[in-house]
Amino acid sequence: MANHATFSSATTSGITGSWQLSFLLSLLICNQLKLSAASQSSSLGVHIVRSPESAVAPKGDEVVFECELNLAPDRLEWRFRHTSARATDAMNYNYLHGGEDGHNIVNENLTSRLRVFVSSETLGDYQCVAWVGSAAIASTPARLTLVSISIDNSNGYSRNAIRWSVAPKNCILIRCGTVSSNPPAVWSFFRNGEKVPQTEVLPSANGALILNTVSSKDSGNYTCSAMNAITGVEVRLPQRIDLRVDYIDRTPPYFLNVPVSQVTARPGETAVLECPGVGSPPPEAVWSSPNVINIYNNRTKVLPYGLQISDVMPEDQGSYVCRLDNGIAPALVQIIKFIVLEAPQILRGPAKTRTNEGDQLELECSAAGNPFPQIYWLINGEDTSLDNETFHEDRRLVIRHVQKRHAGIVQCFAKNEVGEVSDGSYLEVNPKQIQGEDSAPLGSVPIRMPYEHTGNKNKGKRKHMKTLNMIPPSRPNVTRLSDDSVMLRWYVPKNDGLPIQFFKVQYRMLGDSSRKIPRENWQTTNEDIPYGKRDRVFEGVKNFTSSVSGLKPDRFYRFRIIAVYSNNDNKEGNTSAKFFLQSSEALGPTKATLPAPELLRVEPLSETAVMIHWTLPANPINVPDGFYAYYRLASSAGEYLKATVDGQHTRKFKIDLLEAGTAYEFKLQSFNALAASEFSAILQGKTKKVATTPMPVPAVTPINTKEHDKPKYPIVAGIAGCG
Asked: What burial class does residue 245 get, using C-beta atoms within 10 Å of its C-beta: 0-12 exposed, 13-18 middle, 19+ buried?
């Protein structure tokens, strides 16, 4: 890890006079600004590189929250607000002390780790606060919630059987009710007590069984169950549906259950606007919108039960009109409001300000998001709602009479149901002059001496700079592959930090409560996972996939990702949630019934790209959440490179940046929250050859390319589609 600068505290007892105070405050700001070459969209010299991340865990588990700064603070503390407290009541935050109340704090260099034993008493919000002198900066808070699942009785589903009589060839969505589950539940459906070979399950928080083009064989009594993927707890819903498929008199379109009139999704997700009308004969749907332009595009697909929108964008938000018609009046019209949720972003944070003690001050913070974010303010880590001198309305913070204690760091926070962000700046206060007396002690005005180098000046500054710019990878998502292996998925957010060369994966086996199984040290895998080429202008979130093998079944593990940067320094991402690697025996038929995809063909697209196409067996018992794509040079016996393909409906995937005119071999697995399928058969394909064009100049100066300068790894360009 990078070295960090050390600071010495200023002694203030002999300093008098307001001009000296103003000079020292200016000196503080200037020096800290010089130290902040990458200040994360604010003028602060000190900033939080990594805030704690929210977590979902079962009771008795252990969760680790991490907080990292770009330079060493004078002190760093954690505070906690219980989930029962009102979210707007800052009085309910309490500072934590290590080793008490199920908490343990470890500070190491620039990072602080808070270990929390999960219980009903430790659920709530956690936030780190760092002090530089008497100025303080706070992280965005993380929330610890409990894994849970329960039946939601608020949606009008009854315990009585519902009878449906439907004409053949209609498309039906079957739901037995809704559940409240954290994380979202995995659904199963049963006909006459036997598990249904599911053709599809809607990708929503409360899944539905899709029966497409029904016939008499689909008649029966349907029930449902929902399972929490972390705990394995399963609940049976009491609602039963008695379905009869038979020829009936000609009827106009109607709904078996009235679909929802409002749907929400986040950018990049896939959404389905449901319009599952039935009739005799079956109706056809025509979609339109009064305020969304060109709803028929390469991201939308008309399904028998609704309109699917892939890779959702903000411009997709609006009203959608579904008109169902089967030639028998009246036609059926359903209007659906589609809302695209967007995480908050601060468009303009509070400006760096100098003011006089006793003056009134007004600061502004402009934010955007959907829903529009709530804005609140902290001064030196303290909520301004607790300060009698302050009030805020909309985006403005007003300090009626500025006090010396207000000098320091002012932060604006914007939050909505999608996320939370913050921005901040310094506030300098010129104290009142007191004639004939020495000035009052400096009190809470933040003072910091200039940066002190040891040894070579440039060398010290270079070490400091690289610490500022290393953006860590995310916490990995873990999926079981086999009895001794898992697949990890993580991402790196869009940033302008130091380029990442490659990643390393670390893991360790955890002990059990009886201490019969000892906890092991962190192990590092041999594989270097390349970052690939980087486009600083257009690149957004970048996703990565890697597997870990050699594990033991029926054991708990944690995983984390280490990023190695262009300066050969490294930084670790947040640790994964505790993961239990179930054995095949414990899983039962889950993996055996997860369908293995069948590779159909490899389509050469260009000299550097191919498109792989596949299909799934008809009527699988379990439906996958997505697919793992594996590929390598056909002439190689080395490790496969891997990519994750999200979406159960996806049937093709583009793999880019391959070598020209070269043969590769490909294979696939399907996966869900519990397991991965067997591999497909291996299929080979070849990229197009380099097109040779006669050069107009007969001779050119050759450029020798060293072998080690050539790209070693092909990179996945995430373009997937439905077939």
From this structure: buried
Task: Annotate 142-180 with b (16+ C-beta within 10 A) or e (fewer).
Answer: bbbebbbbebeeeeebeeeeeebebbbebbbbbbbbbbe
CB atoms within 10 A of CB 467: 24
- The alpha carbon torsion through 654, 658, 663, 666 (nearest 10 deg) reads -40
Q: Which element (helix H / strand E) includes 584?
A: helix 584-587
Contacts of 67 (CB under 8 A, 6+ apart): 48, 50, 51, 52, 76, 78, 111, 112, 113, 114, 128, 130, 139
How far is the C-alpha of 202 from the C-alpha of 184, rounded, in Å?
13
From CA 633, how far away is CA 663, in angstroms rounded? 6
3-class secondary-structure state, position 293: coil
Distance, C-alpha 701 to centroid of its chain = 49
- DSSP run (H or E) holding 25: helix 18-35
Do 485 and 25 meet the contact criterion of CB atoms below 8 Å apart?
Answer: no
Quick check: helix, strand or coil at residue 381?
Answer: coil
pLDDT at 450: 33
- How many C-beta atoms surround the C-beta of residue 125 within 10 A? 20
Which tokens sit at 589? Answer: 């038929």
Q: 93 forms bridges with which residues in the sheet? A: 81
At 106-116, the pLDDT tens digits run: 988 889 999 99
Separation in Å, CA 525 to CA 500, 522, 549, 551:
18, 10, 9, 12
Token look-up 């030639």 returns 327
> What one-character DSSP code corresponds to residue 460?
H
Q: 43-87 pLDDT, tens per residue? A: 577 889 999 999 999 988 899 999 999 988 888 999 999 988 654
Q: What domains can be seen in the chain, in order of their start residue? A: 18-146+343-448+456-469 (2.60.40.10), 148-338 (2.60.40.10), 477-587 (2.60.40.10), 598-690+713-722 (2.60.40.10)
